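Input record (one chain):
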Amino acid sequence: MSEVVVVIRYQAAPNQADTARREILALVATVLSTEPACRGIQVFESAEDPTRFMLVERWPDGATYMGPHMQQPHIQSFIQRAGAFLAGPPDISLWHTAGGA
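The corresponding structure, as predicted from the sequence alone:
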């Protein structure tokens, strides 16, 4: 089975873009340094709206992302704190290469 690409979109709460950026970047650094199954994460900020962020993550499969990754203490801690700097829950979608290539 080919790897899965996870696209996560965040919207910062009003006046919280700097905090959201800082928290997201810190979380990404922790994931990359502590979760060997993660094959990479790119962080994007909207060119039109600095309160919108997008992560593009690569994982071996959806089960690894939705299971062990989501249960990590750093992920659970981020989720608990997120209400202070995000406008709502993230939009998360899983993707794979079309045609199985």
